[in-house]
Design brief:
The protein folds into two domains: 229 residues, Rossmann fold (3-Layer(aba) Sandwich); 124 residues, Rossmann fold. Helix content is 39%, strand content 18%. α2 runs parallel beside α11, α6 packs across α7 and α11 crosses α12. The chain is built from twelve helices and 17 strands. β14 and β15 form a beta hairpin.
């Protein structure tokens, strides 16, 4: 199995730098514990002791004894590894927060439903979570499900911070939908700029049936056209994602093959490269985090991927997270786990900044306040996936790195 051997800091593209500047992000601390906090606008002043008395399809009152953060994700099925990683990372954050006294002595609870990576199950899961007293959410893990979840959350005004759903429609679904991960266009643009600058013979293999892969590829394609750089394209879909000999054969003479896909298929492509005698450099995005577990010493291709998280980082915060995760789950965390961990802590820090001190806080009013807080120039968050600020669209702005396997 390959090991992480090198981490290279990658500068943000000019467009992202400008976006960061437009966000006006700074690290000035916000005062916690106030009785009333205005976050971003006069319309979003929120009293910290708002009573929870919300009805939907009949009268009910949620009798919360903890702050409830809801989510859906694939906990079974082909995409279960992603959902389980997010769940475990988020639960670790919940455990740490509660062990440290919660928020003003009140604990948090994670309630995550299995959506099997389908939009209908995410919508059904949302309804169950809302009826059970969810006050804020991590949305969903995968983009199709997250868009469905965010659309339902928009109807009720529930705040949504997805750890890992990167397609733009997810945050475009409502004003109160945000994300922790890079967006698909960011991945595509940064990858195009890097590869166009360093290589001549470029190939691409993407999943035409997957929103994450297609979204990154579309941005990559547009940027390559803008740069007037040609490349060779190959694709596959969910019905044909086990044998990549045809795609690799078509690209075997390329210097680099761009893989805007998930790590399972990337591992199969790397093995197909061995079989076909293809020595191309394999370069991917954050979905390749975990590819080391899919390959062995027979794979000699250089493999790198763009990501906000390096499990072997020597940063003290990252090291502490990795150690705690390994202790609890007997496995190393991947980026999905790190994103879930950061998403919970970001919500916690925002609620602390707002001075929330009543477990019965209304999710609609909390949603307004969290939205204003996350888009405020005074709010930023430093997590294990980097320092973050959010713009008005709900997009997260942070600096990527490149992890290289050898």
């Amino acid at each position: 199995m390959k090991k992480f051997s090198k981490v290279i800091a990658l500068l943000l593209s000019l467009s992202l730098v400008l976006c960061f500047a437009a966000c006006g992000g700074n690290t000035e601390e916000t005062t916690a514990g106030s009785e009333e906090t205005t976050a971003g606008s006069e319309e979003t002043t929120v009293a910290a002791d708002i009573a929870y008395d919300l009805t939907k399809e009949g009268e009910y009152t949620a009798d919360n004894t903890e702050y409830v953060i809801g989510a859906t994700g694939p906990l079974t099925g082909d995409a279960a590894s992603y959902g389980i990683s997010v769940q475990q990372g988020a639960q670790l954050a919940i455990d740490e927060i509660n062990a440290a006294g919660g928020l003003n002595g009140v604990n948090f609870k994670l309630d995550m439903k299995d959506d099997k990576a389908t939009a209908p199950d995410a919508s059904t899961g949302y309804d169950a979570l809302f009826e059970a007293g969810m006050q804020a959410s991590l949305g969903s893990v995968t983009s199709g499900s997250a868009e469905s979840f965010a659309t339902r959350a928009a109807e009720d005004g529930v705040f949504s911070l997805t750890p890992s759903a990167s397609a733009d429609p997810v945050i475009n679904a409502s004003n109160n939908s945000f994300r922790v991960c890079f967006g698909d266009p960011d991945n595509g643009i940064m990858s195009a700029e890097k590869l166009a600058k360093e290589y001549k013979n470029i190939g691409v293999i993407y999943d035409s049936s997957d929103a994450y892969s297609s979204g990154i590829y579309d941005a990559f394609k547009a940027k390559m056209a803008e740069l007037n750089v040609t490349y060779i394209e190959q694709s596959f879909d969910a019905e044909n994602n086990r044998d990549f000999s045809t795609q690799v054969e078509a690209l075997k003479d390329c210097d680099v093959i761009f893989l805007p896909i998930y790590y399972t298929e990337a591992g199969l492509i790397a093995k197909a490269c061995v079989a076909k005698g293809c020595d191309a450099f394999l370069f991917g995005c954050d979905g390749l985090d975990g590819v080391a577990s899919q390959i062995d010493a027979t794979v000699t291709n250089k493999i790198s991927y763009l990501t906000p998280f390096d499990v072997n980082s020597e940063d003290a915060k990252v090291s502490a997270f990795v150690t705690a995760y390994e202790t609890k789950y007997s496995a190393k965390p991947d980026q999905f786990a790190a994103d879930g961990y950061d998403a919970v802590y970001a919500i916690f820090e925002a609620m602390k900044a707002l001075g929330v001190n009543n477990v019965k806080v209304d999710p609609i009013e909390l949603g307004k306040a969290l939205t204003a807080t996350f888009t405020s120039a005074d709010f930023s968050f430093d997590g294990v996936t980097g320092g973050m600020v959010w713009d008005a669209s709900g997009a997260c702005v942070k600096e990527p790195i490149i992890v290289e396997l050898q």
